[in-house]
Specification:
This protein is mostly helical. 68% of the residues lie in helices and 4% in strands. It has 6 helices and 2 strands. It has a two-stranded antiparallel ribbon with strand order 1-2. Helix 1 packs antiparallel against helix 2, helix 4 runs antiparallel to helix 5 and helix 5 packs across helix 6. Bound molecules: S-adenosyl-L-homocysteine. S-adenosyl-L-homocysteine binds next to helix 3, strand 2, helix 4 and helix 5.
Length: 194
């Protein structure tokens, strides 16, 4: 593994992510929204996450900025990063397949929204966020730069911790006891751990 290949891997995650979600984004746009918890706060959180996983690493790959935060490249870390990146994309694809037209980039419940509790949603109730955490860790392992590498963890972490309670409240408001029972028998993002 070389620094250039590691950078190519980081850009590949972004491209693959876009390709995977594209179909679902189109389909879900056609499904009317019944309840929305979207607002300025959500938009800001999404932008912070997009910067950390997108703009900051892209600028680093394109220009090398901020070079002062570089540290020596470790091939073993980068290989591990590649494993995390592949895992992120596999989980990401599975969550999109499972959610289907119930998917949304933000906090929205659609008309005839179905609560999905099978497949990747069986043991963990936020597997798509698991995928984003895997991606953020992959970025940190692949880019030997304290700022560009860790921007994903900071950016997605801000979205995750700023959103999760509101998302669960929205699901409770929509699905009531069904979601409460689902919460009781599942983990948040890591099976059997958290
Ligand atoms: N938090 C989930 C989904 C993220 S996408 C995950 O990490 O996998 C966000 C949208 O998914 C929300 O607007 C919500 O309406 C929907 N959603 C979240 N959990 C769901 C579930 N178990 N079944 C159906 N839709 C769900």
């Amino acid at each position: 593994m070389t620094p250039t290949l590691a950078e190519a891997a980081v850009v590949s995650i972004m491209v693959a992510w876009y390709i995977i979600r594209y179909r679902y984004a189109r389909r879900s746009r056609r499904t009317p929204i019944a309840r929305s918890a979207r607002g300025p706060r959500e938009t800001v959180l999404l932008l912070i996450s997009l910067s950390g996983l997108g703009f900051v690493p892209l600028i680093y790959v394109a220009t090398g900025f901020p070079a002062f935060a570089d540290y020596p490249f470790q091939p073993a870390l980068a290989w591990l990063g590649l494993v995390f990146a592949i895992a992120a994309l596999v989980v990401f694809r599975l969550t999109h397949k499972a959610l289907g037209r119930n998917w949304s980039i933000s906090l929205e419940v659609r008309e005839n929204h179905q609560l999905i509790t099978a497949g990747v949603y069986r043991h963990v109730r936020h597997p798509m966020y698991t995928a984003f955490w895997l991606w953020a860790v992959a970025q940190a392992l692949l880019l030997p730069n304290w700022i560009a590498g860790f921007a994903g963890i900071i950016g997605f972490g801000t979205l995750y911790f700023g959103r999760i309670a509101r998302e669960e409240q929205m699901m409770l408001d929509s699905f009531g006891d069904e979601y409460r029972a689902y919460m009781q028998r599942t983990y948040c993002i890591i099976p059997y751990v958290y």
